[in-house]
Structure formats: C-alpha cells, structure tokens
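Collaborator request, handled under Task 6.
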Amino acid sequence: MAFSAVRVPLAAILPLRELFLQEANFQVRYNARHERGWTDSYLLKVDEAEVGYGSVHGQEIKDRDTIFEFYLIPAYRKHASALFRELLAVSRVAYLECQTNDALMSAMLYEFATNISADVVLFADHAATGRRIPGAVVRPAREGDKMFEHSNEPEGDYVLETGGEIVATGGFLRHYNMPFADLYMEVRPDSRNKGYGALLLQEVKIACYLAGRVPAARCNIANPASRATLIKAGMRVCGFMLKGDRRG
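Structure tokens returned to the collaborator:
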C-alpha cells in the first residue's frame, strides 16, 4: 500500500473540500484564503485512489509554511497518520494550525506538533436573547450618520443610537463558508460596559439570519470583554485556534 501527497491546483481538491465543509458544519476561519489564492493544495492518495486533501497557507501570505486543513474520506481515516506524514514531507511546512472543532486536524496537530498554544476563541450561536436598554435603538446605518472614530473594527452596517448619538456599530461578514457569517462590533470608548455591545449583536444576529446566514464569531483569547459581550448576546464558545511547531 503506497501513500502519497501530490501538489495540485485548487480545483482538483474542491469536491473533497465540499465533503469536508458538509461534515464539519462550522465556520472555517480561513475559508476565504482558498479563493484569494493564498493556499497550496495537495491531493492525498492511497495507491491510485484519491482519498483526501491537505491545504497549506502562510503565517505571512508570501510564505506557505502552515498546514491548516486535512481531510480524508471516512474509509481511509485509519491511515491518517501515514498520509499526514507524507503531506509533511512534501509540503515541508514549519507549523501546524487548526480549529479545535475540527477533530481530524486537531488529532494531527497533537501528534505531529509541539509548543502548541491558543490565540483565538471561536463562537457559535447558542440562544436567542431579549435584551433591552431604555432609549437605545438599533437600526441600519444611513448615509450621513455621524460615526465615532473606530480603532479595531470597520464601521458597521448597523448602529446603536442613544440620546441622538451613535455609540456602537456592527455587522456581519459574508466571506466565510456557507451558511456562516462572522459578527463584529465596536463600542465608543466612553460608552463601554453599559450593555450596548450585547444589545447590538443581539439585533445583528437577527439580521444575519434574515439574510440567510448563520451567525458565528471569534475574538482574541486575551480579550475578556469581547468574550463576555458575545456570550451575553447568546453566543457560546465552540472552539479555539491552535498553533504549534512541527515536531522533529
């Protein structure tokens, strides 16, 4: 039995990647990197049978140094370690990265990486909330709205207005695998810790569903304020982003 990993154009792995996305049924953080041309694709084979794929991207876009996707059809997962070794040998990467809600890639990371650390928390929708703040209104952004200066996130498609002033903005990004979208928001510094962020996200979640998307989100693991806001808006922690150095 011969195991191999062969560099191929992205189009060659897309049918297998569709299987991966259907089985995973979660937001893939780096999904857009494929269509933007920032990845290298490898077809995994047992003898002449095409049984899976691996994807490599870079911690810096110009360098392809990190395996971040690895998928095998179920009948061949007993050969996961052997096929992953072939992928490591051919791609010559220095790092491994995964979402902990991706069970197969997580197993490979723990087997083949060292110095593993987490930097990002991943969220999935969990519950509808009924938060209300007297005088606070969430509405779509309009041309001519006077926005505050943003330091972390873009000015959103939705705003939270109170006392005639916009104190928070947010929205959802659609460049993720269907049907998921990524929530974001920013609250004006002098209006934080008042519940405005959670109220805004609560309403943005509704708009996201009405647009045919499922809300998801992420935040830096060192940002407890954003984490608490997402949970108050009905999100739950569903995983973490892990990175590790290739072992050996």
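The cover message to the collaborator said: "The chain has a mean pLDDT of 96. The two ends are 25 Å apart (CA to CA). Please let us know whether this matches your experimental observations."
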